[in-house]
5217_t:CDS:1 (Scutellospora calospora), 114 residues
Amino acid sequence: MAPLEEHEVTYGDNKKIFYHASGPSDGPLLIFVHGWPAIGKLWKPQMDAFAAMGFRCVAPDMPGYGKSTARKVIEDYAQEQINIGMLALLKDTGRDKAVWIGRSPHTVPHSMTN
């Protein structure tokens, strides 16, 4: 298990997204996105496994969590603003595409709702 690298990208009006990264810098990019309430380090076991297979793995602390900017401006948490932050993160990796993987501990699998 390689140690997680720490990165931070600034975007917009001085907002910051903190993220962990692991794996070869030229490997296919996977971005692991957490739900509420969590931090990016939640994904460490998956990052270790995929990094060992040659993937570049990134897991941000979503806005308002962990080491990312937390502000009391409710508009900062609108979906459009979250997307702007995630695109800034993608740009910071030097890539223009990635496989995005997400989870939220408060969701119910679709098969359980039928």
